[in-house]
């Protein structure tokens, strides 16, 4: 379990993280979201002991980062942002170096090596120099380094940046699989990626927590409206306007008519679904619905509304 | 201690994985060899003073060059973040890196032993003790300059800047006793004690005094301590 308690971190006069608190339980995959400069990386750097908090603390089980830095570092596997690696080393030597620093014996290293080579798909490059590997492989090498000591906690700062769609799917599957037994925190600003991978999302903006929950919860709690676009034939505008009286939850956003058909955009609360009623109403009036498409509030809208609202509040 | 050794091993390996170590060793051997032999037969003396006076000069530029990347490169590539979040002390990292740079310097010095072998063949009445203490002095001097080099490497993420700072600091140590005539009498003794030349000249004559050993040891310790503090300071950045 990780508990971030009232964490603040300033760089000089700039407050990167302000009184941030959240908890993450074992076996959870958590997505850490925020615009660039929101304080994601700073928070992760404090959690790994690279930076000291200005105030507040980070707890891992019953240990805290101020007093038990080494103990916590032993339990964490960390993939820093931009995946820095010793490019002049062979992949094998790099993994061996990290294993030795982590206090693993040769025998333990051998087993661990087999595991990470299998999980991260490194068998082709194990004797290559890190600098000669492609970006996708480097990213996997970075993950392998973070996983070599089989840590309880994995902290991955933007693990899929710069990968192609196939590689993203592979890494996503790997993270999902790891998340079954480990606590995984991954930051990203690729929302689809987060939505597809994680159990829980934490959104921060200007160093403050703005939302926390599963992606469904976040979308539901956002006070967004769903939109429905309709193309209807054989309907006159007045009749369409009257539809509001029969289905009260609706409001008509736009209404345009051409010679052949009418284009209507309807709005209604995210929580309701009046599509069946609209269909029945159309049948009753003998309209032909040529197209009906719904666009719901998605995570992207939630993210934008939360992080932009914060910006305005700050200005 | 084990962690220091692992870092040391990694750094030394990385010197020899790149052309760095070989270029250093070859050029060091050529430069010292040239300056030693071009006067060796003219002087007609069976000693190695010529070598012992040229090596400190060569060190002025070579050691900062060897050590300039040790920490600066970690900072510029970002691996400082990986290595600082491993469960090891910052001082283990600093010490391991210092020892790796220092070892390369000592290996370079070992190459010059070939001149000593030449001397024993062609020379007469060689003062082996003086040669030995002279070498010992150069080893200690290499330690001082390496610690300065590691320190300057920790100050910046730019290796070239680290090199320039390193050369500047070792130059101060080197030139200190040449400035004595400008120093008030009351301070002269102190300034002289700080300069490396003062301690080195004793040793190249064959005199090993504990005062000299204390001097070299404490300067190395001082710079390694400073380096560790600089590396740790990232936490409050």
Question: Can you offer a commentary on this structure?
Answer:
The complex is a heterodimer of chains A (315) and B (237). Chain A has 2 domains: 220 residues, 3-Layer(aba) Sandwich (Rossmann fold); 72 residues, 2-Layer Sandwich (Alpha-Beta Plaits), CATH 3.30.70.3190. Helix content of chain A is 37%, strand content 30%. In chain A, strands 6-7-8-3-9-10 form a 6-stranded mixed β-sheet, sandwiched between helices. A 4-stranded antiparallel β-sheet of chain A has the order 2-1-4-5, with helices on one face. Chain A has a 4-stranded antiparallel β-sheet with strand order 12-13-11-14, with helices on one face. Chain B has one domain. Helix content of chain B is 81%, strand content 0%. The radius of gyration of chain B is 19 Å and the shape is globular. The relative contact order of chain B is 0.14. The mean pLDDT of chain B is 91. The chains are: A alpha/beta (315), B mainly alpha (237). Chains A and B meet through helix 2 and helix 3 of A and helix 1 and helix 5 of B.
Keywords:
heterodimer, A: 315 residues, alpha/beta, Rossmann fold, Alpha-Beta Plaits, 2 domains, 4-stranded antiparallel β-sheet, elongated, disordered C terminus, B: 237 residues, mainly alpha, 12 helices
Beta-strand fraction estimate of chain B: under 5%
The overall number of domains of chain B is: 1
Give me the number of helical elements of chain A.
Answer: 11
Element order of chain B: H for helix, E for strand: HHHHHHHHHHHH
């Amino acid at each position: 379990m990780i508990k971030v308690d009232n964490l603040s971190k300033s760089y000089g006069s700039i407050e990167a993280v302000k009184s941030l608190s959240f908890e993450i339980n074992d076996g959870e995959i958590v997505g850490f979201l925020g615009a660039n400069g929101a304080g994601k990386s700073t928070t992760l750097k404090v959690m790994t002991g690279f930076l000291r908090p200005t105030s507040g603390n980070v707890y891992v089980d019953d240990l805290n980062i101020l007093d038990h830095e080494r103990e916590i570092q032993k339990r964490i596997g960390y993939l820093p942002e931009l995946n820095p690696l010793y490019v002049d080393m062979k992949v094998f030597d790099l993994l061996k170096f990290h294993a030795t620093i982590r206090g693993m014996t040769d025998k333990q290293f051998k087993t661990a090596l087999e595991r990470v080579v299998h999980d991260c798909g490194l068998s082709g490059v194990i004797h290559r120099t890190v600098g000669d590997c492609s970006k996708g492989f480097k990213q996997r090498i970075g993950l392998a380094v973070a996983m070599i000591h089989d840590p309880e906690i994995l902290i991955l700062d933007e693990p899929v940046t710069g990968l192609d769609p196939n590689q993203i799917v592979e890494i996503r599957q790997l993270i999902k699989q790891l998340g079954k037994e480990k606590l995984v925190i991954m930051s990203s600003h690729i929302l689809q990626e987060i939505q597809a991978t994680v159990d829980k999302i934490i959104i921060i903006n200007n160093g403050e927590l703005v939302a926390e929950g599963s992606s469904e919860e976040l979308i539901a709690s956002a006070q967004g409206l769903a939109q429905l676009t309709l193309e209807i034939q054989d309907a006159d505008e007045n009749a369409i306007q009257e539809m509001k009286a029969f289905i009260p939850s609706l409001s008509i956003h736009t209404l345009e008519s051409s010679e052949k058909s009418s284009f209507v955009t309807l709005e209604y609360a995210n929580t309701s679904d009046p599509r069946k009623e609209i269909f029945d109403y159309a049948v009753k009036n003998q309209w032909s619905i040529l197209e009906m498409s719904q666009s719901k509030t998605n995570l992207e809208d939630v993210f934008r509304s939360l992080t932009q609202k914060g910006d305005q509040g700050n200005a | 201690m084990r962690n220091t050794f692992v870092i040391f091993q990694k750094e030394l390996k990385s010197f020899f994985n790149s052309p760095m170590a070989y270029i250093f060793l070859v050029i060091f051997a050529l430069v010292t060899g040239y300056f030693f032999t071009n006067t060796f037969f003219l002087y007609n003396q069976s000693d190695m003073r010529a070598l012992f006076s040229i090596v400190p000069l060569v060190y002025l530029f070579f050691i900062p060059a060897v050590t300039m990347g040790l920490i600066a490169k970690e900072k510029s590539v970002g691996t400082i973040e990986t290595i600082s979040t491993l469960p090891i002390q910052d001082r283990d990292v600093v010490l391991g890196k210092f020892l790796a740079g220092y070892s390369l310097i000592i290996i370079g010095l070992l190459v010059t032993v070939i001149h000593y072998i030449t001397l024993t063949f062609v020379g007469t009445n060689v003062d082996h003790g003086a040669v030995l203490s002279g070498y010992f002095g150069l080893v200690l001097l290499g330690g001082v300059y390496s610690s300065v080099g590691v320190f300057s490497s920790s100050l910046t993420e730019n290796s070239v800047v680290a090199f320039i700072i390193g050369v500047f600091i070792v130059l101060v140590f080197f030139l200190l006793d040449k400035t004595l005539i400008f120093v008030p009498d009351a301070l002269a003794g102190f300034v002289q004690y700080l300069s490396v030349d003062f301690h080195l000249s004793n040793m190249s004559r064959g005199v090993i005094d504990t005062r000299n050993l204390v001097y070299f040891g404490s300067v190395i310790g001082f710079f390694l301590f400073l380096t560790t503090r600089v590396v740790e300071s990232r936490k409050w950045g």
